[in-house]
Design brief:
This protein is an alpha+beta fold. It is built from four helices and nine strands.
């Protein structure tokens, strides 16, 4: 299995730095120290649920931080152009340490299968039907950041050349005839 590359680690470090800088600007958020949850939303071109080296991030995906006990939304961010996101959390201020992440599906995409393989750092964590992760527990001490919560999505849009081939081959008409006979 592939481990996260230097490029991936740099992307996460950049996102973490930006989020922590935002947290410093709002000192009430992290007065007792911060924890975090984040990682990556990627285009799972081969639909295998695992981040492969050639698969790129997807920007513009809305990611919601939810309270585990009742799915109440705490915060929301949009992935950066490279697909990265990060929530900076003060569990001391919130008073609880269990969360879920909800990934909102883009139009024309489906979620990859979740929890494929044994390497938690490169698999998709979003349920393919709901976009929700399982419970993510933070220890309640300042400092730890869980950077393994990610989602794979793949395009479900039929490319125009394939649609044109179906039309030109006559198969599109045959599919319509077969459907009329069976209904």
């Amino acid at each position: 299995m592939r481990k996260k590359t230097r490029k991936t680690k740099a992307r996460i470090a950049t996102a973490a730095g930006m989020a922590l800088a935002a947290g410093v600007a709002n000192a009430t958020v992290c007065v007792d120290g911060c924890e975090g949850i984040g990682d990556f939303v990627w285009n799972d071109q081969n639909m295998n649920g695992i981040q492969d080296n050639n698969e790129t991030g997807i920007g513009g995906v809305t990611v919601n931080l939810l309270r585990d006990s009742n799915n109440a939304q705490i915060d929301s961010v949009v992935t950066l152009a490279d697909g990265s996101y990060l929530f900076v959390i003060s569990t001391n201020n919130l008073g609880y340490t269990d969360f879920k992440i909800e990934f909102e599906l883009l139009a024309g995409y489906s979620f990859s299968n979740a929890n494929v393989g044994a390497d938690e750092t490169i698999d998709s964590d979003a349920d393919p039907f709901t976009g929700l992760t399982g419970t993510i527990s933070l220890p309640g001490d300042p400092g730890p950041i869980n950077l393994d919560v990610d989602a794979g999505m793949y395009s479900t849009v039929v490319p125009v050349p394939a649609a044109a081939w179906l039309f030109g081959s006559g198969l599109l008409g045959l599919i319509g005839i077969a459907r009329r006979k069976t209904t």
